[in-house]
Amino acid sequence: MLNQEKINELRQQVIPHQQLFISGKWQPATSGATIDIISPIDGKLITTAADAGADDVDQAVAAARNVFDEGSWSKAAPAERKRVMHKIADLIQQHAMELAVLGVRDNGTEIGMAIKAEPGSASATFRFYAETADKVYGEIAPTDPSVLGLIHREPVGVVAAIVPWNFPLMIAAWKVAPAIAMGNSVVLKPSETASLSLLKLAEICSEAGLPDGVFNVITGQGAVSGEALGLHNDVDVMVFTGSGMIGRKLLEYSARSNLKRVYLELGGKSPNIVFADAEDLKKAAMVSAMGIFRDSGQVCVAGSRLLVQQSVKDEFIDHLQAAAEKLVVGDPLDLGNEVGAINNARQLKQNLGFVDTALSEGARLVTGGKQILQESGGYFMSPTIFGDVTPDMTLAREEVFGPVLGVMSFEDEAEAVHIANDSNYGLAAAVWTGNLSRAHRMIRAIKAGVVHVNTYGGPDVTVPLGGVKQSGNGVDKSMHALDKYTDFKTAWIQL
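The structure corresponding to this sequence follows.
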């Protein structure tokens, strides 16, 4: 249960300078360089962190490789890996409030969402993959009786993971937990603007008994430490969640180095499709509002393209506007607020730039479109809705990653599918309809990794999250994520 008094107490805690976590030890960057950690709540400095360079990346990768080759984790009994991972999950739960408040101070997510999406999700993810450690079997191939064909799964070795600032703990868990469950070692690089909860996770993993070097955390600039990881010849697999621009660079780094496998989740421009036969338009509007405005729209799967059937468009926009204008935006550590801060000043400026572009291209501003609460010193923006958006407009084609929604209309199912698929992205989608047959037709027709029906958001760790087209490759979550962190080896035995 969230408690405002406890939140306020944790908010006031002094955060010391953060160091790199390599081979179970805290150490400064080799160069001594640091980066400032600015809170989006008030724009003030809350601490500093080590700014890792290529030499530090070399140390972290070497630590990961050494412990992998030594075998204390990679060759440990699966039941032992399971035990340690359950302990990690227990400690995340034990420190849930501290982790959530620490993360909110760092990235601005509203605390009501953060407590569930960050420590809540992370502990569940570690627990889920802990249970896979001793339940993933090899296979016996259906060969001729004179041959025995065995298919083994082996850990890949060293995994480099780069995660974004919107849900750092949740997304890191999606990558770290399956990787270590399979016996790999990990070097994790958080975003420059959201690293504090992941440094705390390193402390938790060490306390839980994870051998030194299995999990390393390096903070720093993506253009330096991220590039060094991407180019490193001793990294076997790289996993990344973030922008398409950086994803392309990581693929390039792979080609320039050792051809490491690179798995990418690159965001989306997800269509949220409302048919006139949806059973409750008001409820659909309320859920759709949260599908774009929660965490100030800083969600990869956010329903940022709203497609509404023409016959109910005006009614639906009225419901949507009412829902958006009721949302209370403000200090994300205040339980009375429903929407928090934009993560950083550059992102806020980019969001407002999309508003200007939408207006210049002829879209109609329904509500919002402004920076608010400037007196706080933080980065806040009102939930923003544009009507009269057409599929060729910038707002319909480019990911904003902010609380900005574009509304388009369609006449029939075929047009809805055409508009929905007319995008470079294919991460998520939603369909609101009371017609079961239509729902199944739309699921098949829409090109996306996740299709919600009569809801938006909520899939847990039991199902995969992955994109098609320029939304990436591979999946996070579910048993299917394990394939990224294992190599298949065939044994062909003549009997």
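The chain has a mean pLDDT of 98.
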